[in-house]
Amino acid sequence: MSARSRPGRRLRLLWLGVLASTLATFALVLAAGPADSATGAAPAVRAAFPARALGQVSAATCHPYASSLRPPPGPPQVTAGPSMATILARGYLIAGVDQSAYPFGFFNPLDEQREGFDIDMVRAVAKAIFGNPNKVHYVTISDAERIPDIESGAVDIVAHTMTILCSRLKYVAFSSVYFDAGQRVLVLKNSTARSLADLRGQKVCATAGADSLTAIVKAGAIPVTVAYWTDCLVLLQQGEVAAISTDDGILAGLHAQDPWTKLVGPRLTDEPYGLAISQGHPDFVRFVNAVLEQMRTDGQWAASYARWISTTVPAPPPVEYRD
Questions:
Q1: Which pLDDT tens digit goes with each residue over 289-320?
Q2: Domain for residue 256, yes or no?
Q3: Are 182 and 188 in contact (CB under 8 A)?
Q4: Which domain holds residue 252?
Q5: Strand-strand pairing, 183-188 and 179-181
Q6: Alpha carbon 188 to chain centroid distance?
Q7: Residues 140 and 252 in one domain
Q8: For residues 157 and 96, is the Cβ–Cβ distance under 8 A?
């Protein structure tokens, strides 16, 4: 059986190759374009929290870049709020993450650790709570599971390349923006497509629950949905789809895994990433925002960006709040 007909083996080899190399390819692509681990046992029963409990943002007042709650001044301080008390009593943070979105959230087979830019955000929150960044139970979730798992209380926080959208703010709260992305298109190197508009009537892959599906449908392409972005890469390699369209950071990670692909076209959207948290936990939202404020000012954010995204580090996304 050929390597092309064995996508699982091919992807594992690609992962090992890219993880053994530097992130130079990933950085160049961005510059050119516009198994669960835990420090404690997983909860036996997922606690239920009422959906849309507090702090909804109405459509009339929604501003994704200014939708979160202002943190108290100074360094992060664990408060007596109910959600913070629950996390402290449990002894670890429960985080919903991706394990295949290199380099934001992925499972490194070389050291069997969760790594990436999103994982660094979660580890910083855990360190601010417990003094130990390893006090995290990671739950692997798909894009479609992000909102349900926050609403049900299955996880405390989601760090999963999640764009802050007015439609999502009806169901969950978000932190302040910690990363700016934009939707583009990934095709095979021999493709003649130069943008999403050139793919009208052709199959374009995205994950179920991804907001990139809106632009795919609008362009007249045929959406094909899967659970994880690496599933899209397999379909592209097999010729089952003509392209993948999502945030450029995710696409650059896929390109780093398969250099026989290329990113095309300009940014189609603005995609501000936030950490998703229950609307019923405003104390935790403010705490997480205090952690992000500290990361922006003490060099942690820049160090994480340089490690995972590019050695050319921009200023962090501007910070705004709704209160």
A1: 999 999 999 999 999 999 999 999 999 999 99
A2: yes
A3: no
A4: 183-264
A5: unpaired
A6: 24
A7: no
A8: yes
